[in-house]
Amino acid sequence: MEKIWHIITMIPPGRVISYGKVADYAGLPGRARYVSKALKTAPDAMQLPWHRVINSQGKISFKENSAAFQEQMELLRLEGIEVIRGRVKLMNYEWRPDMATLVMAMPF
DNA sequence: TCTTTGACGCTTC
DNA sequence: CGAAGCGCCAAAG
Hints:
Its EC number is 2.1.1.63. GO terms for molecular function: methylated-DNA-[protein]-cysteine S-methyltransferase activity. It is an enzyme of class 2 (transferase). This is Methylated-DNA--[protein]-cysteine S-methyltransferase. It is a single chain. By secondary structure, the chain is mainly α. The chain has a single domain (2-105), classed as Arc Repressor Mutant, subunit A (Orthogonal Bundle), CATH 1.10.10. It is built from six helices and two strands. It has helices spanning 2-9, 19-25, 32-41, 67-78, 90-93, 99-105; strands at residues 17-18, 53-54. A two-stranded parallel sheet has the order 1-2. Helix 2 (19-25) crosses helix 3. It starts with a helix and ends with a helix. It binds a DNA duplex (13 and 13 nucleotides) through residues 18-20, 23, 30-37, 39-40, 50, 53-57, 60-62, 68, 72.
């Protein structure tokens, strides 16, 4: 859980990443669902950039009618990310941290 | 205990 | 695209 949050805090503005990737970088391959839960239970006080986490299809994982959906879409747009029908082009906006960055920030 | 339920993901058809 | 199947696993009932 800690690691997951840690990874998320590292996501730079204007970039996004998928649940699955977060899980991978956190050392929990195949546990994307766990990441979503980690986000849900994350303390608001932590100021996590939760909106920068979307699913592997580049889509926002909320119902299109939900308030959360709208909110996330706005936050992303405020960072200069183009969101079409709740979807962003991972090709252009996916965050690809390099090894050094990860190793640097992750204790064994 | 067992079953259902997710802010998910990948492959197949 | 979209739907179906299967994998994954903590929580809640």
